Amino acid sequence: MGRTSRCLLTAAAVVGLSATAVPAANATPGSGVSGVTILQKTIGDTEYIVQRVTIQPGGTSGWHYHTSDAFGIVEQGELVHYSSDCAVDGVYRQGQVMRERGGPDSVHFGRNPGSTPVVMLAFYYEHKVGTPLTVDAPNPGCDF
């Protein structure tokens, strides 16, 4: 698979904010989040997944991490993204791309502060077949 194809498939996978989530003790599940799988391609034991994720006004992703790296492209709205140190590590608007590292050391949280839904394409690439896209995580100590 070429680099361009891999990047496109990756971008489509970032959106699994609430779809395919695994609960954790003291998890902080999202609210107002939905996801629809647009594309799913399996090559050997690796999946390439694209999802369209929608976060309603005032909605959040909840604290979570992904089991593989992911990219997201915002199609509509504004997403405020927080890292596990409680700091805003990005504000993403229409046409902007974000990257999220996979693994439990990359816990993060997304919020829609606006009055219109956030719609984005999430691209998960090099995702291992049989593992969840998203794993819920406890709040790392933030006051929100």
TrEMBL record:
Keywords: Signal. Residues 52-123 form the Cupin type-2 domain. Residues 1-27 form the signal peptide. InterPro entries: Cupin_2 (IPR013096), RmlC-like_jellyroll (IPR014710), RmlC_Cupin_sf (IPR011051). This is Cupin.
